[in-house]
From TrEMBL:
This is Bacterial bifunctional deaminase-reductase C-terminal domain-containing protein. SUPFAM superfamilies: Dihydrofolate reductase-like (SSF53597). Gene3D superfamilies: Dihydrofolate Reductase, subunit A. InterPro entries: DHFR-like_dom_sf, RibDG_C, Riboflavin_Biosynth_HTPR. Residues 2-186 form the Bacterial bifunctional deaminase-reductase C-terminal domain.
Length: 194
């Protein structure tokens, strides 16, 4: 089985963005040291535009070959005219409203989201599936998530968009790795207890 990994940036108090989801105030934490880590370990999580700007568009995928996003997360790039924000991955966007895909590299999942993700997990392959977010889709897919890679930035927001837009339920994970960076960013990796 391929893993579904929720790879996400958040505040100390667990918010992935402001109340409207905007996460642009987190960008300054991607400094030289942290970017070097992302390029080395998770290059495929850098969006296509960013890879081009950094001159690293040819970096091979290391962990994931597929990305799943909710339509609101996809909208962040779409509003800028970018229809394939992760062109180096197979892209799936969950949406009941988008209708036809705006890009040949993007497949819309309009129904049976969990079934589609289970089918992707059941495919053969070395690389896993990157769950990009946001909150709503992570809540819908919580039971399918095998791994969490949580990039915690040293800020407190008080309120904002939660990591999971789902109801109360206790899900156990084991801590499998921690990396701390000079600017206070901490990356923790957890695997689900099954
Ligand atoms: N901090 C980070 O690392 C990070 C990462 C990613 C995103 N974000 C932020 O997260 C925000 C967006 O998150 P969000 O929670 O508002 O939305 P989201 O999870 O990105 O997308 C929600 C949309 O997904 C579709 N959807 C939900 N359940 C579905 C189902 N069962 N089947 C098919 N489609 C389904 C619906 O689209 P339709 O309405 O089209 O049907 C729904 O409106 C953005 O503002 C972004 O900045 C932050």
């Amino acid at each position: 089985m391929r893993k579904l990994t929720y790879f996400i940036a958040c505040s100390i108090d667990g918010f992935i963005g402001g109340p409207d989801g905007d996460a642009s105030f987190m960008y300054p934490f991607v400094d030289e040291e942290f970017l070097a880590f992302l390029k080395a370990e998770y290059p495929e999580t850098i969006a296509t535009q960013g890879r081009r700007a950094l001159g690293v568009d040819d970096l091979p995928n290391r962990k994931y070959d597929t990305v799943v996003s909710g339509r609101s997360s996809y909208d962040v790039a779409f509003k800028e005219g970018i229809t394939s924000p992760y062109a180096h991955l197979r892209e799936y966007v969950a949406s009941r409203s988008l209708g036809e895909s705006p890009d040949p590299n993007v497949e819309i999942i309009s129904d049976d989201l969990v079934g589609k993700v289970r089918a992707l997990k059941a495919e053969d392959g070395e690389l896993g599936i990157y769950l990009c977010g946001g909150s709503v889709i992570a809540g819908r897919l919580l039971d399918e998530i095998d791994e969490l890679v949580i990039k915690t930035y040293p800020i407190v927001l008080g309120t904002g968009m939660p990591m999971f837009g789902s109801g109360f339920a206790v899900s156990g994970f084991t801590l499998d790795g921690t990396r701390v960076f000079g600017n206070g960013v901490m990356v923790r990796t957890f695997n689900r207890k099954r």
